[in-house]
Write a structure and sequence with these properties.
This protein is α+β, with helices and mostly antiparallel strands. The protein is built from three helices and five strands; from the N terminus they run ααβαββββ. A hairpin with a 2-residue loop joins β2 and β3.
Length: about 160
């Protein structure tokens, strides 16, 4: 094994590289405010869209923030803005009293989560839904959901909300 020889420039480069690494947390901290502002804007965009779309049934108007190439992961709803709008226009014709009460929200980077109690009418026990939206450049571009029926009886006294 040969001994490693350091040149004078290597001695200077190593401390500079180390200084650059140590400076990164400060730079990341400076951009944390920007990230929080973007997360807040994304959350506000999704909550406004959701309430207008699923509660006010302003389907076409609310969908103005949905990208044309919207990607859908719910297997019952097609990809694309136009098919998404068409699907829910029919759903709301069939269920005019449908509501989706947002219980809580969370946001991280480009993702916004909504925990929702969704019902088709006043007599419906409903479903517990977690909707996840990905936002890009002020447009909703992708959606996932997890849906569970609200049971009549539970093994505990906790609600699903």
């Amino acid at each position: 094994m040969k001994p490693i020889k350091f040149s004078r420039t290597a001695v200077v480069v190593v401390p500079l590289a180390l200084a650059a690494l140590l400076a990164r947390p400060a730079q990341a901290h400076e951009h944390a405010g920007d990230a929080k502002d973007l997360q807040s804007a994304n959350r506000a965009l999704v909550v406004d869209f959701y309430n207008r779309f699923f509660n006010d049934h302003e389907v076409r108007e609310a969908a103005s923030v949905v990208a044309d190439d919207y990607r859908q992961h719910n297997p019952q709803v097609p990809d694309g803005k136009a098919p998404f709008v068409d699907y829910f226009e029919q759903f709301f014709k069939d269920h005019p009293d449908s509501k989706a009460r947002i219980v809580r929200t969370a946001a991280n980077d480009d993702l916004v989560w909504l925990h929702v109690h969704s019902t088709t009418d006043a007599d419906d026990r409903g479903e517990a839904v977690v909707d996840i939206f990905r936002v890009e450049d002020g447009q909703i571009v992708e959606h996932w959901d997890v849906i569970q029926a609200v049971p009549g009886e539970a093994a505990n006294d906790n609600t699903m909300f």
